[in-house]
Design goal:
It contains two helices and seven strands. It has 170 residues and is mainly beta. The longest helix has 9 residues.
């Protein structure tokens, strides 16, 4: 088994919890670990705005075209999605793609946690400046849960086309 680089305390902690995993596996093998196919799922959907919008659509692996009516997950202002990964991973980047078929922009808050109690804020935008795909990088840390919420300049909802989490630069 490969040795964990000394600079990575998150990786060392994870290797102690999962000694059977290689360093590459601890970091997710370079793959999107926030994928439904890799065991990630949306834990809560109590405040999704419309029942016809599948909250898990943002976790799909394949890229699918989206329209004004489908292909994205939706959450109302003041609420959030909590995504649970299959297990903890040592991560340093989360990519968020929002609906971008018009001129709307988004204000969003992005947080990560290992235990659902202690949250580390990755991004807390107070100005509507997010549009399309954007990568949020942060110091490597253990991540089991991702929480995201926000609103748009067009209406009080956050429309997420794709959410991805990696241990690489996006």
């Amino acid at each position: 088994m490969a040795e964990v680089p000394a600079a990575s305390k998150a990786g060392q902690n994870l290797q102690q919890q999962f000694p059977m995993l290689s360093w590459r596996e601890i970091r997710g093998d370079g793959l999107n670990v926030a994928s439904y196919a890799r065991g990630a799922f949306v834990r809560n959907n109590s405040q999704a705005a419309h029942q016809q919008h599948d909250p898990h659509i943002m976790l799909r692996d394949e890229y699918a075209a989206y329209t004004g009516r489908s292909g994205w997950s939706l959450v109302a202002k003041g609420y959030f999605f909590e995504v649970q990964l299959a297990r903890p991973f040592a991560l340093n980047a989360i990519q968020v793609e929002t609906y971008a078929r018009d001129d709307r922009t988004y204000t969003l808050k992005l947080e990560v946690s290992t235990n659902l109690e202690d949250w580390f804020t990755i991004h807390d935008g107070d100005q509507p400046n997010h549009r399309g795909a954007y990568c949020y990088e942060f110091p490597e840390q253990l991540v089991r849960y991702i929480r995201i919420g926000g609103t748009s300049t067009a209406n009080p909802y956050l429309h997420i086309v794709k959410l991805a989490a990696y241990h690489t630069l996006c």
